[in-house]
Amino acid sequence: MRLWLRGLVLQALRSTRGVCGSCGQPPPLPVPQKIVATWEAINLGRQPVPEYFNFARDVLDVWTQLEKAGHRPPNPAFWWVDGLGAEVKWSFEELGVQSRKAANVLGGVCGLQPGDRMMLVLPRLPEWWLVSVACMRTGAVMIPGVSQLTEKDLKYRLQASRAKSIITSDSLAPRIDAISADCPSLQTKLLVSDSSRPGWMNFRELFR
To answer: Sorted alphabetically, which SUPFAM superfamilies does this protein's record hold (predicted)?
Structure first.
């Protein structure tokens, strides 16, 4: 998988950042078959692995460009369905737009810089995947956690990682409040909820 992603990056870099000498315009985007051929060449050691890689920019955004150019069918990038049948469906372009908005929240209100740690403890909500991609865009290090974490678990993870921010739900917010005084590095607390809570910022309101 890692080589596949890197192969995609290499082809994307050559196609989207190069310039055609005869016309002065960027060359056309690669068709999926060429992308596959590229990662196979890297896998066999016939092409170098790129030094830098960002999944959000070099994969998701490239798929967006491929769809716009008609090189691949417009398939959903994200499709979430809850137990009641409610759906959230994003194309690659929509996921790009939404994740950039989330990245602005992380880099703006939260003040996260590349390398800063951020803890994400959510049930299976669309915001989980959205924040994951946003962290890739900002360079923040995401520390995932499950909703079953106790106060002791949360305290240990926040202290050990020196996380500057946490994003969680209504059910876990009281546990965070109970131990946040013992976590001096924790600067911002974001709540994924339709309601408010003292000492917390509402992620959904900031995201709008």
So the answer is: Acetyl-CoA synthetase-like
- C-alpha to C-alpha distance for 84 and 99, rounded to whole angstroms: 25
Same structural domain, 22 and 117: no
Number of domains making up the chain:
2
Q: Do 182 and 112 share a structural domain? A: yes
Beta bridge pairs of residue 88:
80
Q: Which amino acid, residue 112?
A: L
DSSP three-state, residue 34: helix
Q: Is residue 109 part of a domain?
A: yes
Domain that holds residue 39: 2-54
Going through the chain in order, the beta strands assigned E by DSSP cover 78-81, 87-90, 117-121, 141-145, 165-168, 188-191, 201-202
pLDDT in tens, 37-80: 776 787 788 878 777 778 888 888 888 888 888 877 888 999 99
d(CA 108, CA 90): 24
Q: Which amino acid is at 88?
A: V
Say how far apart CA 160 and CA 170 lie, in whole Å: 24
User: How would DSSP label each residue in 133-168?
Assistant: HHHHHHT-EEEEE-TT--HHHHHHHHHHHT-SEEEE
User: Do 201 and 108 share a structural domain?
Assistant: yes
Q: Is 199 a residue whose pLDDT tops 90?
A: yes
- Please tell me the predicted confidence (pLDDT) of residue 58: 80
Q: What is the pLDDT of residues 118-153, one digit of tens each?
A: 999 999 899 999 999 999 999 999 999 999 999 999
